[in-house]
Amino acid sequence: MDLQLYIKDQGEFYLIGVVPGKDIYFLGHSSQWKCILDKVFQYAKDLSVPDDRIFYRGKTLRTYLSQGMGNGNSHPSIDRNSV
């Protein structure tokens, strides 16, 4: 399966799974950044979704987290391996 995971920020964080051209899945939501990261990393682990298929704000989540801390971002960085 060619699953991609997306975090959408619309007042709360929504986790969406997409199989391009086929299906869209609602996988959960949370008002807490850490909780949505826990969910996305658990789904990625369980479904073998690689880092380059997890997205937030137009970037891979890994890129966003690595750049965000240096730019005064309000979301903390969490290591995927710690979840």
Q: What would you say this structure looks like, in words?
A:
The chain is 28% helix and 31% strand. It has 83 residues and is an alpha+beta fold. The longest helix is centred in the middle third of the chain and has 15 residues, at 33-47. Mean pLDDT is 84; it is low at 69-73. The protein has a 5-stranded mixed sheet with strand order 3-2-1-4-5. The protein is globular and about 30 Å long.
The end-to-end span amounts to 23 Å
- Provide mean pLDDT, rounded: 84
Please indicate the percent range of residues in DSSP E strands (runs of 2 or more): 25-35%
Helix % is 25-40%
Topology overview:
Blueprint: E1 4-9, E2 13-19, E3 23-30, H1 33-47, E4 54-56, E5 59-60, H2 61-68
Parallel strand pairs: 1-4
Antiparallel strand pairs: 1-2, 2-3, 4-5
